[in-house]
Amino acid sequence: MFMRKPVFMLSIAAGVFTLGVAAIGLAADAPANPVALGSPVTEAQLANWDLIVAPDGHNLPEGSGTAAQGLAVYQQKCAACHGTSGEGASGSPALVGGSVSTTPPLLTVGSYWPHASTLFDYVRRAMPPTAPKSLSNTEVYQVTAYVLHLHGVIAENFVLNKNTLPAVQMPNRDGFIDVSAN
User: Fold this and answer.
1) CA nearest 160: which of 131, 120, 118, 103?
2) Domain tally for the chain?
C-alpha cells in the first residue's frame, strides 16, 4: 500500500536540503585567510584561570589568615547571603551546622565536605557570586579560616596558609569512598 508523506514533511526535507547546499557553497567561497577574532591566550593569562586546588593542597597560593581576621571580610562580603553566622539567608545555603544523618540531610561545609582545600578552592573561584575571583588570596584564607572556625574545626587564631590548610581534618573526611584507589 502506498502512503503519501504529509506536505509539511516534504517542506522540511526541502529546507534541510537547501540549507545543506548553501553551506557547501559558503564553505567553497570561504577566503583563504579568514578573519581572526580575538587573540591567542598566553600562558600567563591562562595561569590566572588555572586555580584548581587539589585535596592535598597542590596549587595553594601564598597568603595566610585566621578566623579572627576573616570575621571582617565575611561580614563585608559574605554575610548578606550566608547570614551573620553562616546560617544561610535570602535563599542562599547555610555554611554551618547541618548533618548528613538527618532526613533530608543538611549538607554544609563542615557536615559534608571532606577536604578543607575544597572550601578554599570554591571561595577563591566563585565567591562572592556578584564578583567571583575578586577576593585576594589572603582574604580567601581569612574567610576559609572563619567558616572552618564556625564549625569548630580550627581555633580562632589558627593561621591558615598553604602549609597548614592541607593538614586540617574535616569532620566528614571519612564519609566518602575513594574510587581512584579501586
Assistant:
1) 120
2) 1
In Å, how far from its chain's centre is CA 99? 22
Q: Are 176 and 170 in contact (CB under 8 A)?
A: no
Checking if the pLDDT of 179 tops 80, the result is no
The answer to the question of residue 153 being in a domain is yes
What is this structure's pTM?
0.72
- Residue 37, CA distances (Å) to 31, 34, 40, 83 in order: 15, 9, 9, 44
Show the cell assigned to 131: 564578583
172 lies in some domain? yes
Q: How far is CA 32 from CA 25, 29, 37, 40, in A?
A: 15, 9, 15, 20
Here the CATH number for the domain that contains residue 175 is 1.10.760.10
Provide the domain limits for residue 113. Answer: 52-181
